[in-house]
Sequence to fold (86 residues):
Amino acid sequence: MKCSLRLFEKAGRLSVRSQTVQTFQQRIVLANGASYLVNTTLPKPYILSIKDITNMPLNNPKVNALSSIRGQESRRSKFEERYEGL
Fold:
């Protein structure tokens, strides 16, 4: 917990205002099971990351989700062949 004092002037007199920021350690768990700690102001102890670099199909080409992208490439090539001369 960090605590700092800040002086500010209000109606011609100085006052002391305390500004308190509480930080918590948070564990972020990636899709592949790896985790790391981050200091944050969110009081949640952990976050399960749904989308990260370990489960995105473009970053991890071994994932089966790329089959739909390959299917779109073949559809696009058929479309380009059909309307090539226009």
Notes: The beta strands are 2-10, 13-21, 24-29, 35-40, 46-48. The chain has two domains: 1-50, 56-86. The mean pLDDT is 74. The helical segments are 66-82.
